[in-house]
Amino acid sequence: MEKAGKGRRGIDGHTLLAGVIGWPVAHSRSPLMHNWWLEQYGINGAYVPLPVAPGQFDTAVRGLQAAGFRGANVTIPHKEAACRIVDRLHRSAQRSGSVNTLVFASDGKIEGYSTDGDGFVANVEAHGVSVKGGRALLLGAGGAARAIAASLLDRGVAVVMANRTRARADALAAMLEGITVVDWEQAGDILPSCTMLVNTTSIGMEGAARARFPLDLAQADPALVVCDIVYVPRQTALLEWAATHGLRTVDGLGMLIHQAGLGFEKWFGVTPVVGPEVEALLDADLHHPAADGAG
Ligand SMILES: NC(=O)c1ccc[n+]([C@@H]2O[C@H](COP(=O)([O-])OP(=O)(O)OC[C@H]3O[C@@H](n4cnc5c(N)ncnc54)[C@H](OP(=O)(O)O)[C@@H]3O)[C@@H](O)[C@H]2O)c1
To answer: Which pLDDT value is given to residue 10?
Structure first.
C-alpha cells in the first residue's frame, strides 16, 4: 500500500489508480466515495470517472491495464461486457451474470467480481435485519435483480420475482435455479406470504416515468421488510408508503457503499469502514441538484 499521510495528496509516480467505467458516468458518486476513503486512510491513490462509449469497452480496459491501473468499477451499460473480458470470473460474477469490479492482477490476468448482491445483503443486515430463510418478493428482472436474487438464494431465502416484461423474469429464472416467477399484476397475491419486498425496478427513481406498483401494502404481514435499491431520492415513494403502514424499511444508499468495499480493498489494500461519515457525505451530495442515476 502507498501511504501518504492523512489529508490531501498530490499525484506522483507512485499513485495507485482506479476508476469507474460507464456511459454516461458523470453522475456516479463512486469517485466521491473512493477518494474520500483514500484521503481518510492516507493512501497515495486516485479514483477517476472513465466515460467509455459502448463498443469501446474492451479497448478501454486493455488500455487501463497497460497504463498500470489497479482495476476499475464497471457500471451501466458495460456490466455484461465486463463478464466476457475477464480471465478469472469469481463465483459472484458467474451467478449474477455481470461484473461490477475488475481487478488487474499482478500475473497479468483480469479478475471479475460482482459485489451488488452482497452489497445489498450487507446493507440490509446493517439495518439489523437478518437475511436468512424467509421469502422475498423481488420486483424487476434487470441486472441488479439478478445479482440480488443470487445472493438471497445463497442465504436460503425463497425468491419470487415479478417483472413488467414477464419473459425477462422467465429467462433469469432459467439461469438461476430456485426463482419462482409470477405475472407482474399478480405480485400482490404473493405479498402476504413474504418476509421481504425488494424494489429493483427504476420505478420511483428521480427522472423515471411514473408507474404504480402492482400491490397493496395494506395486505402485507406486519413483519414485512420493505427495501428499495433506488437511492435518488433516498426516501422513495415506496418507502414512504411502507412507513405509513408501520413497516420496516431499508433504503438503497447503503448498498452503493457496501458494494464498493471489495474493490477498494483489492486496489488499495485497506478494507474501508462503511460508517455514518461516508453515508453522510453521499447523502449531502445527493441533495445537490445534479444528483441522478446509479453506481
Ligand atoms: N443502490 C445501488 O447500489 C444500486 C445498484 C444498482 C442499481 N440500482 C438501481 O436499481 C434500478 C435498476 O437497475 P438495473 O441495473 O437492474 O437496471 P435494468 O437492468 O435496466 O432493469 C430495469 C428494471 O426496471 C423495470 N422497469 C423500468 N421501468 C419500469 C416501469 N415503468 N414499470 C415497471 N417496471 C419498470 C424493468 O422492467 P422491464 O424488463 O419490463 O423493462 C427492469 O426490470 C435503477 O434505478 C438503479 O439506479 C441501485
So the answer is: 86
